[in-house]
Amino acid sequence: MIAFENVSKSWGSNHVLKSLNFDVQPGEKVSIIGPSGSGKTTILRILMTLESPSEGLVSVDGDVLWKVAAGEKPKETRQLRQTRRKIGMVFQQFNLFPHMTALENVVEAPIHVLGMDKGEARERAVDLLNLVGLSKHMNHTPPQLSGGQQQRVAIARALAMRPKVMLFDEPTSALDPELIGEVLNVIRNLAQSTDMTMLMVTHEMRFAEEISDRVVMFDHGRAVESGPPEQIFKNPLEERTKTFLRAVLQH
Ligand SMILES: Nc1ncnc2c1ncn2[C@@H]1O[C@H](COP(=O)(O)OP(=O)(O)OP(=O)(O)O)[C@@H](O)[C@H]1O
To answer: What are 26-66's pLDDT values in tens digits?
Structure first.
């Protein structure tokens, strides 16, 4: 469903991704772990077309999103916009429209981007806000909601576009500790009850262990180890994975 083939990304002399080969199968739930600055967020931003690779090929659902030869300037592929719509993303910061209610935030894109009928979009938004446990808060604006509630609106908003792929970029890192569980519960339910492909960058190791089909350990722009959670968390093969997990699991 997602494929990175020999993808590199540099900012000046900072080589953030180095000939990365990485893929995610349809329906697979994959978590990316690794130290700060290892390139995890950059992968998601390239998939969202918020960044372009310096070199390499990126495809989603069989469509080429980026194809950049060495030394060439990245340019948008013909199907980029179409393909981009297959992907939903949940950011660290919730990025909601502050003056709109939860319901308006969720119906906005389906109506204006997909051209969905207003009644249908509204019905679907109500269902999604119920799904994320916000039936009582549909008419509240973001300032009237807690961080956990805002992030759940952001998840409903991404789902409203009927994506085939959901990307999560450290979705709980901006939340107070007591609000993390409610957001993880929503993501856990999605992982267990849908066949959507899910790719998540997370610092929540226990959560990654629980919901992922596969965990990928990143370091210095490379996938150093990839395997089922039992392998990565209980019996890692690579020294780098062992030292990383020892450091983060101590806290
Ligand atoms: N727009 C940009 N311009 C210049 N450098 C950037 C830009 N975006 C990211 N970087 C650099 O790329 C490197 C990797 O960043 P990235 O956010 O992908 O790491 P990460 O693994 O997600 O880290 P974290 O866990 O801290 O979020 C960092 O050195 C960062 O400073």
So the answer is: 999 999 999 999 999 999 999 999 999 999 999 999 999 99
Closest alpha carbon to 224 in 13, 40, 12: 40
Ligand 1 binding pocket includes 42 (Cβ within 6 Å): yes
Q: Residue 39 Cα, ligand 1 centroid: separation in angstroms?
A: 6
Q: What is the CA radius of gyration of the chain?
A: 18
Q: Is 117 left (phi over 0), alpha (psi -120 to 50) or beta?
A: beta
d(CA 203, CA 97): 27
Tens of pLDDT, residues 136-165: 999 999 999 999 999 999 999 999 999 999
Burial of 212 (0-12, 13-18, 19+ CB in 10 A): buried
| Ligand 1 pocket residue status of 14, Cβ below 6 Å | yes
ipTM over 0.90: yes
Q: Cα of 131 to ligand 1 centre, how many Å?
A: 33
pTM: 0.93
